[in-house]
Design a protein that fits this description.
Largest sheet: 6 strands, mixed
Radius of gyration: 21 Å
Helix content: 40-55%
Structural class: alpha/beta
Oligomer: single chain
Number of strands: 8
Strand content: 15-25%
Shape: elongated
Order of helices and strands: HEHHHHEEEHEEHEHE
Distance between the termini: 15 Å
């Protein structure tokens, strides 16, 4: 996204004059898993029997003889109705679900909750999900600052980065969760409000750091798909042409 074309502006254009509740997926769930859920949910909605009472099927979620794939289908079915009982059954099952199914149940609960809220409040609902999730109305981002001299950041530089980004992110209503220095990279995990121009904030903060020595490359990497290892970062950079702002361009980064 460009600096003056952030996600919040895009959402306002989509909604138009109508108000809408924005729902951000809080958990960190692999984007490919999310896409698999939405794909199956779309198919399920065309097949389900709207007249059937699926509460009698809930016990299958706890049956070890029922396959994971069948349980995934059932979760999608329960999440497809504006039914409080179905929502509560998913909520209860999540507490006991296998690790493999918990992200699936989380997505089902989110979908079910949105349908119920939309019906009860008579208000449009917008759902935003990213691989890194969020917190409240803040989205989580993974940012990589590259050392200009392609060397380790020294102690003074590390402290400056921590202090400047902590101050800037807090000032804009966000939260700096983690800063890790590895090789020539500073890896930052942070939360920022959806309505804030994220790239602009990060760019200005980088420039502020560079006023003390110009030690950070003006191009930085930012994504909300996943946290990247040092090897993945280097591999990504090797494929770039070192143009303007570096950003992972992934169709799965923003799902509305």
């Amino acid at each position: 996204m460009e600096q003056n074309d952030n996600l919040f502006d895009k959402l306002k254009q989509m909604v138009g004059q109508n108000e809408a509740n924005i729902n951000i997926l809080q958990e960190q769930i692999d984007v490919k898993l999310q896409m698999a859920y939405f794909k199956l949910a779309k198919i399920i909605k065309k097949q389900i029997n709207k007249e059937k009472d699926y509460l009698q099927e809930v016990e299958k979620l706890y049956d070890p003889e029922i396959t994971i794939e069948e349980k995934k289908k059932l979760i999608c079915i329960l999440a497809s109705f504006e039914n409080v009982s179905y929502y509560r059954s998913l909520e209860k099952f999540k507490e006991m679900a296998d690790e493999e199914l918990k992200p699936w149940v989380t997505l089902g609960l989110q979908e079910s909750r949105m349908m119920l809220e939309s019906s009860l409040l008579d208000e449009k609902q917008l759902f935003i999900s990213t691989g890194l999730g969020g917190k409240g109305t803040n989205l989580r981002y993974f940012v990589v600052l590259i050392n200009n001299k392609e060397e380790h950041y020294n102690e003074t530089q590390q402290n400056l980065i921590k202090q400047e980004f902590q101050y800037s992110i807090n000032k804009h209503g966000g939260e700096l969760e983690e800063t890790i220095f590895d090789d020539k990279f500073a890896k930052i995990t942070c939360l920022l409000p959806i309505e804030k121009p994220v790239q602009e904030i990060l760019s200005k903060t980088t420039k502020e750091c560079n006023s003390f020595g110009d030690f950070i490359n003006e191009n930085f990497l930012i994504t909300n798909v996943k946290k990247m290892s040092t090897a993945e970062i280097q591999d990504f950079l090797d494929k770039q042409d070192n143009g303007n702002q570096l950003e992972i361009d992934d169709d799965e980064t923003e799902q509305l």
